Amino acid sequence: MRIVKLKKEYFHPFLDVISRQAELWAPVKKGDKHIFDRVEDFNRIEMKTTRTLLPPKKLLVPPAFNTFTFNAEGYQEDLSHVSSKILFGIHPCDIHGLLTLDKLFMHEYTDPYYVKARQKTLILGLSCWPDEYCFAKSTRTHIIDEGFDLFFTDLEDFFLVWVGSSQGDDLLRMKPDLFEETLSDSDIQRYIRWQTERDKAYRTEINFMAMPDLMELKYKAPFWEEAGRACLACGSCSMVCPTCNCYNVLDKLALGGKPGRRLRLWDSCTLVEYSEVAGGENFREHKADRLRLWYTHKLQAYVSKYGKPSCVGCGRCLVTCPVEINVRTISKALEGEDPKAFWYRLPSEVKP
Amino acid sequence: MNGETRCREEGNPFLPHPARIVRTYPLTQDVKFFQIRFLNMDQALAFKYKPGQFAMISVLGAGEAPFCLSSPPSRPGLLEFCIRKAGSVTGALFDLKENAMIGVRGPYGNGFPIEQMAGRDILITIGGLGVAPLRSVLLYCLDNRDQFGKVSVLYGAKKPSEMIFREEYFALKERGDLECHLAVDADDTGSWTENVGVVTTLFPKLSKVNPENTYALVCGPPVMYKFVLREFVKLSIPKNQILMTLERRMKCGVGKCGHCAIDYIYTCLDGPVFTYWDVLHMRELI
């Protein structure tokens, strides 16, 4: 893979050229958090963020969008959520998240709503530094060698830029004089030192390879009931998870002869209606059953299909769940440890 | 980028195909029969399915839901469904008159393994609305009668008025080339001439079963499975020759929306037909 160097002072001039081609989206501040937002003023871009509130999936499969409109004549496909975008500042874990979604949406019955948005989206990755909630090293998603068009490693006064695709190469060629093709030995040493230090900075470790077995062996362990009792069934874990793809479908009629719409909306298997069928039968009425499904998918099912967990170690569930049900606490509980999570502190008289 | 090189361009699998209701009439108090044809004849001919597969039916404005096909693929052209009024989509469907427009897409799911079932004896056990998918496979077997060994049907319903396709099954009893036993849990008419009791009381009436050569199929209300499966096992039918079709919430039918996930499989792609072995080794199936 081609690796070039970009001095920091040339970064905005580069964005200036490429943002004329497509909408530029990047992490910006929102309160004390960060979100991906449309950016015209490059000074808004936050270069040293950890995770954004929502993962970049929101730009490929928005939280709610029309799949088609309908009237008496028939159906009209609606792809209005698709536009040319350049996503800058996507961290390796989130790129892995997109690759996981690719496997689902581009496999067997290709999903045009995802595929068309994905085709029009350029991914410009950016290196990051872990905080205490990141565990991407445990999921081996702290490094990335595919799934991006360009990847920027921030080495303080310059970037090393990995060129991951032909379209990424086209972007560089729009302003080739900004980039240096030759890397010095000291540049390379800087990168190696950065990588070594970065790898040491991960403080949360989870043994994911043990999880499929433990999910099977501990399927009936009492901690599931306890976690189920604490779970608010709010669905936040799914909203923030880069690999949660479940969705609901809703028809909306319009007044005044306007066409009706069929919407697709983010959904979560932790919500009570998720497995309900006609007539009120619910296959997962209890919160514990729904949590087990969520973690079966993340820690076990995906491993048996693809040889790796569908968790990418971004830590969003750790910072989001109000009652500390997350990949870290559940893994600890599966390993037989007391994760000291909220649900272990819950008085036993609190009933579901 | 990756998306471009990986995807295969195909039509949009989420767009329903316009269809019309040809006939609809009540089968019981809350179950209706629907016969449907695609507006586009090419679409009708392209819709090739197996018994046990399902389709997604749309009533625009009300939504979309999965329904198993009740017609056999050996009678192409028209699709038949038997549908219980149970939610918003079925509620809207019940309000539609003949010739009304609906949307249909599919067929989806694995269906019954009819290739493997060919040449074998077929034992079909039906409870109530379980007739919907099993009618497709039964009529398929009868339409291809010489491809199958002995065909037996055990059909139980709550009461005579709730026996869906009652006349059809009484007519089947007259045929000499299959064994058909009917039962109702309770006879509230006083004129029921067949058996009274739950469906499992029909097992002793079966003529000798050759278990190694038999595929046993069951569909019915959840409570019924345990008892019927016990009878199949008593007959020594191998667990991977015991087939059942399951119901799950589905929003897409094509393995994307996630609702029908069980363990590492999707009911819509890997099911809805499962073997008894699948059920034993996967959690949450029944």
Describe it.
The complex is a heterodimer of chains A (352) and B (286). Chain A contains 13 helices and 12 strands. In chain A, helix 7 (211-217) runs antiparallel to helix 10 and helix 8 (223-230) crosses helix 10 (287-306). With 352 residues, chain A is an alpha+beta fold. In chain A, 33% of the residues lie in helices and 20% in strands. Chain A has 2 domains: 2-200, no CATH class; 208-345, no CATH class. Chain A has helices at 11-18, 57-60, 92-105, 112-119, 166-173, 185-200, 211-217, 223-230, 236-240, 287-306, 316-320, 327-334, 342-345, and strands at 2-7, 23-30, 33-38, 64-71, 74-77, 85-90, 121-126, 150-154, 158-163, 179-180, 247-252, 260-266. An 8-stranded mixed beta sheet of chain A has the order 3-2-6-7-8-9-1-10. In chain A, strands 5-4-12-11 form a 4-stranded antiparallel beta sheet, with no helix packed on it. With 286 residues, chain B is of the alpha/beta class. Chain B folds into 2 domains: 14-108, Elongation Factor Tu (Ef-tu), domain 3, CATH 2.40.30; 114-245, Nucleotide-binding domain of ferredoxin-NADP reductase (FNR) module (Rossmann fold). In chain B, 24% of the residues lie in helices and 29% in strands. Chain B contains 9 helices and 15 strands. Chain B has a 7-stranded mixed beta sheet with strand order 10-9-8-7-11-12-15, sandwiched between helices. In chain B, strand 7 (121-127), helix 5 (131-143) and strand 8 form a beta-alpha-beta unit. The radius of gyration of chain B is 19 Å and the shape is globular. Classes of the chains: A alpha+beta (352), B alpha/beta (286). The interface between A and B is large, with 63 and 46 residues.
